Amino acid sequence: MIKLSLALDLNYLVGEYGADFVFNIHAAHTACQTLASEQLTLSPPVEHRVDTDPATGNRYLRLKARAGALHVAYRATVELRHHFAAPETLAEVPVERMPLTVLGYLYPSRYCQSDRLIKLAIREFGALRQGHARVEAIQAWVRERVSFTSNSSNSNTAAVDTLIEQRGVCRDFAHLMIALCRAVNIPARFATGTDYGADPALGPPDFHAYVEVYLGEQWVIFDPSATATPMGLVRFGTGRDAADVAFATIFGAVSSQPPLVSVLALEDAAAGIGPPYHCREAISTDGVATLC
């Protein structure tokens, strides 16, 4: 089991007319991701509520802040019991057998214009052996053609832009990989977390975007930017693309400071709790937990 201590601090200055906020910073409840503890602190105290999307498990903090400073602090201890599978056992699921909740992740979306990449995807990946290996090939193709470059994109950058410019940050890698998967009829969704295991040279710890692909009738984790340790990814939300699961959506005049993110691995060898590590097996926090 993996056990992580998570701390998030967000600071805003709200304009004179106030602002509405929707945050997706609470760790999601999944089959293999549970919370040993969590605490939310708002300063000044603000009336708020946390709603859970029954379809995704995403949890959304909603509040209206008055003019002035707003500090949002979230603390959690998260336990991850991953499902491990040999990659060669994970087959693509025929469209006719996909659950209704999965079908939506086959379609184009705002940042993942899969309909514009069909010819490219079929040419590059259409003849490859189907299953986990084909998804790995798509991930490798994205990594080979896109360089990780901080501050190289913005909120309007979509998969086709990243393909043309050949540079981006984690969300851009994720959008392009998702679009290419969908273009060859493989459901893929955008996932958010934190970048545990990232090289400090890339900057301070931050929020992170990665990909979950539907293989073997479960959602399997991929990190196309290769900046984090997949086993250390705490899931906040999943959606069609970044528009569905921004860590903060703000309605009103607000200025913000960079988020402060900390994720520490808690270890207890006697209890079978160790740090995240890179492994050969395909992993998921969506299936039934097994030991690697």
Summed over residues and divided by their number, the pLDDT gives a mean of 94
CATH architecture of the largest domain: Roll
Helical amount among residues, as a percent range? Answer: 10-25%
Q: What gap, in angstroms, lies between the N and C termini?
A: 10 Å
Instruction: Give the biggest sheet.
Output: 5 strands, antiparallel
Low-confidence segments, given as residue ranges, are none
Structural class determined from secondary elements: alpha+beta
Count of helical regions? 5
Number of strands: 17
- CATH hierarchy, class of the largest domain: Alpha Beta
Overall morphology: globular
Report the β-strand fraction as a percent range: 25-35%
The CATH topology of the largest domain turns out to be: C8orf32 fold
Describe the 3D structure.
This protein has helices spanning 100-103, 118-125, 132-145, 159-165, 170-183; strands at residues 2-14, 19-23, 33-43, 48-52, 59-65, 68-80, 83-85, 147-148, 167-168, 188-194, 207-215, 218-222, 237-239, 248-251, 254-256, 260-266, 282-284. It has two domains: 2-81 and 250-270, Immunoglobulin-like (Sandwich), CATH 2.60.40.2250; 88-244, C8orf32 fold (Roll). It has five helices and 17 strands. Helix 4 packs across helix 5. Strand 4 (48-52) and strand 5 (59-65) form a beta hairpin.
Defining traits:
5-stranded antiparallel beta sheet, 17 strands, 2 domains, C8orf32 fold, Immunoglobulin-like, 16% helix, 292 residues, 4-stranded antiparallel beta sheet, alpha+beta
